[in-house]
User: Fold these one by one.
Assistant:
Number 1:
Amino acid sequence: MRLLIDGYNLLHQSDLMGTGHGAAWLERARQRLIDTIAAYLEPQDLPQTTIVFDRHSGKQIDAHQVDSSGIQIFYAVDHPEADDLIEDLIAKSSHPKQLTVVSSDHRLQKAIDRRGGKSVDADIWYERLLAGQVTTGAKKTKQGRGNRQTKRGKSHKPDSPLTDEQLARWLDRFNADAIQDELSSLAEEPSPIPKPCPPALPQPKAKPAKKATKQKPQPKPPKKPAPPRSKKKQPAMKPDDLSKRKLQQENYNPFPEGYTDDLWDE
């Protein structure tokens, strides 16, 4: 034995409990847990796995059973509860350092720690199981891998067809009655008659767009040359002319001669 599981502790930490009440509902929940563990563990790990449940309150049941997958099942028939039986199994283990206890109960975690083994919380172990990360370290056998689900989410074909008991377990796990009722209700409901679609109106054909022609740039007219400006040079004045102009300016009288004669006569 390498893997010791606290059954109900793990069941309550998983998504396999479901809703209901009564002995039959609890039995189906236990079987869903066993089938899930068997589907995700390696074939060589199944005989090394032990699941312990509390005492069954209904019909008489054997204290020790072996599931069809090879998993060992114990019921605390001669013990007050499953924790007491798990502590006895830990104490009687011949190789406690190779033993891993799956439980969130601190009492069981301390019991396996005292003997040098390992303990894992139930919720953490369940997540690892679904991720394909759980192994007991047992050597692989030459037998086929069975219907174990791999990490990629694909399952291998079983070596032999399912028995009626196994088929009933899987149908119960996936709630086949509810699925069948849903399918029956869908079959009874008349399917709505689709309304005919109106015929599509013909659309006018679009005229093909004319290709845009590139216009050649027109040459610019040449600029007319501006007419040359005529520059007339003024003749330079001679020195004699300059002296005459100065004399004229000095002797210039704006009053003509005899302009004031009338004033003097008066």
Number 2:
Amino acid sequence: MKLVQYLPILFLSVAMANAQMDTLYVNDTHVLSMIFPRPISRAVTGHSNYTLGYNQETPERVGLLQGNRGDDSNMLVVTEDGLAYSYYLVYRKQLEESHRFVAINEAIGHVLPEKHNDDMTQKEKVRSPRIRLWDSLQYRKASRYFLEQNTSMLKAKRRDGMVLRLRDVSYFGQETYIVLEIENRSDIDFEVDFVQLFRAHGNPRKKSSYQKLTLEPLYSYKGPSMVKVGTVERFVYVVPKFTLTGKERLMIEIEEKRGRRKLLLKG
């Protein structure tokens, strides 16, 4: 089946859950530039007041979003790799951001059907790592809950005017929810290049016994692309459920994209 045959079904599904979508504020005098991980193949808005302009002849990663005054709406964007991204659209005279780098783990699901190899048996088929729509909505709902809790700080790292805080580590279902906070006390905006999570065991000075295992995120909620001067950003990373033994530690590493600043927090 063609991609267009799947879009109405998925668009209806995400429209029913628009209260859980990220909200984008747009107007008719400024452009909100959206940079996706892969080129845009299709974009649909729920109302003609809102439009996402993108290159349909030669697909590119950039889309330009604008809107006219009127009712709120929603938008579904599908990229070339079949991943779908959904947003709630609101008209506002003053914009909160002029651009947005979209992370691949913000996708709500996959539009295209998975390919099957006829030569493989059902037991040999490996489960796809793509995030299912239902899982994504559950991760978002739980992340929002943990983010809104007034938790005490577990650990903090200060360096070069930046403060990285570990606010909470909670368990729900088969996942672990890690609540982080980053504050910019410097005089320069901090553009986030990447956030990495690790489980570390042993002493790094003793290489023979030291192990550092990467925790692959299943989902991130409100992960910042930029931390402006004088602001605090709080966000959540969802990883497969794990527990730390007595000698293990949780490590969080954040590095600046266009600079040399780097934060390493050891829990």
Number 3:
Amino acid sequence: MAKSERAKELAEKQKAEAKALREKKRNSDNPADWGTLRQIRESFKLTHQVDPQLPYWLAGSWLAVTLLGLVLGLVMGRPGSLDWLWGLLIGALFGITAALFMLTHRTKKGAYTRYRGQPGAGEVPLSMLNKKKYTVQPAISVTRAQDCIHRVVGEPGVVLVGDGDPGRLKQLMSTEIKRHQQVLYGIHVEAIQMGEDAGQVPMEKLQKHIEKLPRTLDAVQVEEVKGRLKALDAMRSRIPLPKGPLPTSMKGARKAMRGR
């Protein structure tokens, strides 16, 4: 009897803990705790603020694929049958998928629009790199004017990304390249300046640009480079990040866009 009571108390305790966890996730502002529907809803809200045409893009995507399914059902269906109805239903289902793809695309574009021109905005495209392949460290060096240099480590080697005024970043970038080369022993350090002028990489193309860089390191070498960079970061005095609008709050929008 006592054993049964203890089991009952344990079950109630576990039930209460599970309920508390669900409540915590329901009230959480961390997108990792959100369900799929909430992620989609929050992503839509954030993107709609900078992209008023978003509802029309989503509706158009759904409608186009749905109509395509209907047409295929009519053309390929048997005369006098309800194959057109199956085509319509299947088209509607694939239309939802098309609308979600469109939402992902517009959310990505909206993130660029929202943070373009802000200090540290280069973190937006860098955060979209595959985390299994690339290690991103934003703002490893920052000027007083809030220009900064981000670092990416992966199979292409070490990539330093200048984010801000090229004139103010020129000397800082040169110093960072020399500093990295001192511990990397011959490993190439790629320097990229984000911007719209000639010789620069636009914000919306930065992710693809880095992904297309030639692979020069294998997995073992990448880990070795990370270890050397940890030692480099430990030795130098880090400049504290300014309290300005570095877009750390964008993480919610990015995660909502990517999903869990």
Number 4:
Amino acid sequence: MPGPIPRVEFAVVGVQKAGTTALFHFLSQHSRICVPSAKELHFFDDDSRCWNGPDYRDYLCRFPRRRGRVAGEATPSYIWWPNALERLHAHNRDVKVIALFRDPADRAHAHWRMSRARGLETMDFSNAIRAGRRRLDGLAPNDARRRHFSYVERGFYGAQAERLLSIFPRAQVLMLRQDDLALRHCHTLARVFDFLELKQEPVEARSVFVGDTAAPMDEADAAYLADTYAGDMPRFADLSGLDVWDWPTARQEPGMASGSGGHAPRRGSLGGVTSIMPLSSGVP
């Protein structure tokens, strides 16, 4: 019986609610890629482990060992959770890292909807992104409540990109937009395969959008978040090299939050889309 793989060679590290499930399943269809049966192993963000001398055996045994395969996983909280990226780097300093991003206000709204659906959130979205942020005050950086109520905090992409690039060389990092995975499927996957130094293979191009039918975000909330992220957006664009200026949050005029008194629905970049899956996939 073959033993576990020696190390993981790529990881999709974020961001949450930005198409990482779709990318994971697209990658799993490549003949030279080996992924675990389940997405989100949450190994490197597990603070209960002994990280002074980590035992990787129960992690690596999740990957089928097949000769000539490139092993990788996708846990979108790695980019945000304290010390997760550093632990990944310690495991394999040559690992290739992929991160997807979406409009941060749309991401926050999708995150809130997920928390509500799981019974973790009682606040409406307007309160959750304002007064609700105080629930994080005084919590330890690795307090589990930060996973659930960090709707706004996870959208400061500039700080996350800066940390990512302080740990991994730029040549080992690929940053993408969820919009590109949705709207330029083949081109975006070709970039990913090139980045992983794999031959191009066709992956089912027919795609469907998987998302809920919840009411869109109110204009007042969108304007509030646009003001909140106004200082971070140029920083992120500069660090990532991504064109984010067609995102609704980036197009919002600063200062509009104070003048928005209505509750008109906001037009999102991809509406309720959270993932893009091939029609052949059975993943919900």
